[in-house]
Automatic annotation (TrEMBL):
Keyword Phosphoprotein: yes
Span of domain Response regulatory: 3-128
Keyword DNA-binding: no
Protein name: Response regulator receiver domain-containing protein
Keywords annotated in UniProt: Phosphoprotein
Gene3D superfamilies registered for this protein in UniProt: 3.40.50.2300
Pfam families xref list: Response_reg
GO biological process: phosphorelay signal transduction system
4-aspartylphosphate sites (modified residues): 61
Length: 141
C-alpha cells in the first residue's frame, strides 16, 4: 500500500489528485495537509499527527500559507530521518528560479500542474505509476 502525503492548500487540486489515484489499480492511501506547518508536524509525528504513517511519497505545493513548500522541502531534506522520502514538487509555478531552487534543495522531481483536467489526471497517473511500480522505495520504519 503506497502511503502518499499531499501538501496542498487548494482543495480542488487535492480532489483531482484523489480522483487520479482512485481511478487506478495501485492500492494507496492519501493523506492531506493544507500547509507547511501541518506537513512538518505530520512527518515528525507531532500532535495532532502522533499516529501518522511514514509516507512513501510526498506531493508538495510551493505556494501555501504559514510555511511554504520551499521551506518544507529544505527541512525535509535536512532531516536525516526524512530526507530519503521522495518529495515531488507539484505546483503551478514554471518559474526557472523555483525549478532551480527546488532541485538545489534536493527535490526528487519538479512537476508543473497542468491546467487541462485530462492532462492533470495523466500526470498524476504517471507519478503514481513511477513511484508505485517502477521505482524501488525505501522501506518504512
Amino acid at each position: 500500500m503506497l502511503q502518499v502525503l499531499v501538501v496542498e492548500d487548494d482543495l480542488g487540486d487535492v480532489a483531482l489528485v484523489e480522483n487520479a489515484f482512485a481511478e487506478h489499480s495501485l492500492p494507496s492511501t492519501l493523506h492531506h495537509v493544507a500547509d507547511g506547518v501541518d506537513a512538518l508536524a505530520f512527518l515528525r509525528r507531532e500532535a495532532p499527527f502522533d499516529d501518522a504513517p511514514r509516507p512513501d511519497l510526498i506531493l508538495l505545493d510551493l505556494n501555501m500559507p504559514r510555511v511554504d513548500g520551499r521551506e518544507v522541502l529544505s527541512q525535509i531534506k535536512a532531516d536525516d530521518d526524512l530526507k530519503a522520502i521522495p518529495a515531488i514538487v507539484f505546483t503551478t509555478s514554471a518559474a526557472a528560479g523555483d525549478v532551480l531552487a527546488s532541485y538545489a534543495a534536493h527535490a526528487n522531481a519538479y512537476v508543473t500542474k497542468p491546467i487541462d483536467l485530462d492532462d492533470f489526471d495523466r500526470i498524476v497517473a504517471e507519478i503514481r505509476h513511477f513511484y508505485g511500480h517502477v521505482a524501488l522505495l525505501p522501506r518504512r520504519t
